[in-house]
Amino acid sequence: MSTKYRIVSSIIFLLLLLSIGLSVLNYYIILQSTKKQLEYSDIPLSTTNIYNEIQKNLIEPNLVSSVMAQDTFLKEWLIHEEHDVESITEYLKSIRKKYGLLTVFLASDKTNKYYTSKGLVEEMSRKRERNLWYYKFKDNNLENEINIDYNKYADNNLIMFINHKIFNANQKMIGAVGVGIKVFYINEMLKQARKTYKLNVYFINEKGRVVLKEEAFNSFHSTRHNSELNDALINPTGGTLKHKYNSQEYITHSKYIPELDLYLIVEAKVSDFTSDVISTFYINLIISLLITTLILLVVLRMVSRNNEKLEHLAQHDTLTSLMNRRSFNDALEQLILRNQRKEQKNSIIFLDIDDFKRVNDTKGHQIGDKVLVRVSKILKETLRQTDLVARWGGEEFIVLCIDSEISDAELIAENIRVKIQNDKELQELLTHELTASFGVTKIAKGESSLELIKRVDKALYKAKEEGKNRIVLSV
C-alpha cells in the first residue's frame, strides 16, 4: 500500500473512531444521567404530583366520610332521632351536593336500616348478599375501609366506597357512614397519570396486595408477587426499588397514604424514558457520520491535490513547469526499451541558450529567469503534443521528438532557433537578440540513454565551437 493510501486510511480510521466514540460516550453519559434523574428527581416529583391529584380525587371523599363519622348530629340522630327520616335525608343530600359525590349513605346498627340522599332505602339483613359488606365491616377491627362493589341504588355501577364506623361515647359501634365514587373516575385518573407522566400507578395494602389499579393495566406487582418488592416498598417513609421483569428494567417508588391506609405505587419502565435518548443517539451518530464523511471528502480532496502537487514537483521544473531531468530520463528509458524490441523513428534535440551567463551577470537573475520561462513557452508552442520537452539543467533544454527522422527533428530545431532569435518579448527583456545552439541526433537501436545523451551533447558542443546560433547533427 502506498504512503498516500496509508495516510488516508489512517485519517479515515481515526475520524470514524473519534466520531463513533464520541457518540457512544455522549449516549452513555446522557443515558446514565436520564436514569439518575428518573430515579432521584422525576419519579419522586411525579409521585408528589400524583399524590396531589389523589388527594383531590380520593382523600377529600375519605375526609368527608371521616368527618361525618365524628359528626355529633349523626350520633345524636342515630341514638335518639332515627324516626326523623326527613332530616337525615336532607343532611345526606347536602353532603352529596356540596362535595359532588356519587352517593352518600348511613347505616344504623340498631335498626339495620340503610339511608341515602334519597331517604330510607332498605332494611339490611345478613341473609342478603348485597348487605354482607356491612356485617363484615362491623365484625372486623378496622375503623374504616375502602371497598369496591356494585350498588343497585347507584345505577348498578362499580363504586368505590369509603366507609367509617360511628361510635358512641362508650366506643360502641352504632352505625356506619360512607361515600361512594365511581371507579370510572379513578380509572381515568390513573390512565391520565400513565399518559401524562408515562408512569403506571396503583395501590397496594400492607400485605402487598393490589387493591386498586387501572382496568387495562397489569402491574408488575400484581402479575408476579415479589417479596423483595414488598420489603422495599411497604414502608411508612416510602421506598424506591430498581428491578427487572421480562428483560425490562423498572424503577418503582412508593408513598404511604395514611388517610387511605394504602401505599401509592408509581412504577416506571426505564425504556419509556430512554427511548428518546436512544433515538437521539442514532440521530447524533448519523449526523456525526455525515459530518465525518464530509470532512473525509475534504481531507481526501486536499490529500489528492497535495499529492498531485508533490508528483508535479517531483516530475517538473519549478521555474518553467517543463519536465525535469529525472522524469525526462524515465520517459527516455521507456522509449529506448520499446525501441530495442522494435526500431522506431525517434530523435533528440539538445539546446543551450547562448551567452546566458552574461545575461545573468548584466541583467540579473530575475531577468534571467524570465528569459528561461519565455524560452520554455516558445518550446511548448512550437513542439507537437506528442513530443516531450524538459529543462535539462541551467539554460539547457532537451526535446524528444516522437516518430521523427533526424531530418524532421532538424526542421523542428531550426523553427525553434528562429523563433527564439526573433522573439519580441525576449528582445524587450534583453534589448538585443537571444540565440541558442542545437545538437540533434537519432535514437539508434541498442543504444543506451547515456550513450545517446553523450552523442547529442557532443553535437551541441560542436555547435558552440562553430560560432553558436546553429544546429549540428550527430548521425
From TrEMBL:
Residues 344-475 form the GGDEF domain. SMART domains: GGDEF (SM00267). InterPro entries: Diguanylate_Cyclase (IPR050469), GGDEF_dom (IPR000160), Nucleotide_cyclase (IPR029787), Rev_trsase/Diguanyl_cyclase (IPR043128). Its EC number is 2.7.7.65. One of its GO terms (molecular function) is diguanylate cyclase activity. NCBIfam families: GGDEF. PANTHER family: BIFUNCTIONAL PERIPLASMIC SUBSTRATE BINDING PROTEIN_CYTOPLASMIC DIGUANYLATE CYCLASE, REGULATORY COMPONENTS OF SENSORY TRANSDUCTION SYSTEM. This is diguanylate cyclase. It comes from Sulfurimonas aquatica.
